Amino acid sequence: MGNESYREQALKLFPWVCGRCGRDFSGKQLKELTVHHKDHNHANNPPDGSNWELLCIYCHDNEHQRYLEADAHGDVKRDEAGGSTFKGLAGLAELLKKEGK
């Protein structure tokens, strides 16, 4: 698959449909379809796409919020050896805790 981004690869592998809400995407709307890493490790990009799912921006945001909440409650199990170093929403859990006071 060469120098293609994982998004470009995923768009070739999967139908342009959100894996959660089922919304179809085409044309200009395609930019709203994102690639979600199932294991939350952005470095885990197998060429068969087995760690990816296409989600619309709304469902993708919801998935990451659910993950953060599970992580805050200690419900997330981590593989320390292969864990992600990506911190796209770093600090958000702490801000949410402050808001809840």
Question: What does this 3D model show about the protein?
Answer:
This protein is of the alpha+beta class. It has one domain (about 5-100): His-Me finger endonuclease fold. About 30% of the residues lie in helices and about 10% in strands. It contains three helices and two strands, in the order H-E-E-H-H. It has helices at about 5-15, 55-70, 90-100, and strands at about 35, 50-55. It has a two-stranded antiparallel sheet. The radius of gyration is 15 Å and the shape is globular. The relative contact order is 0.16. Mean pLDDT is about 80; it is low at about 80-85. This is Putative HNH nuclease YajD. One of its GO terms (molecular function) is zinc ion binding.
User: Roughly how many Å apart are the termini?
Assistant: 49 Å
CATH architectural name: 3-Layer(aba) Sandwich
CATH class: Alpha Beta
- Described by its quaternary structure, the protein is single chain
Helix-strand string: HEEHH
Largest sheet: 2 strands, antiparallel
Separate helix tally: 3
Count of distinct strands: 2
**How many structural units, i.e. domains?**
1
Shape: globular
Q: Give the overall average pLDDT.
A: 82
Helix content: 25-40%
Proportion in β-strands: 5-15%
Pfam family, one: HNH
GO molecular function, one term: endonuclease activity
Protein name: Putative HNH nuclease YajD
Organism: Mariprofundus ferrinatatus
Supply the key terms.
single chain, 101 residues, alpha+beta, His-Me finger endonuclease fold, two-stranded antiparallel sheet, 32% helix, 10% strand, globular, HNH_nuc
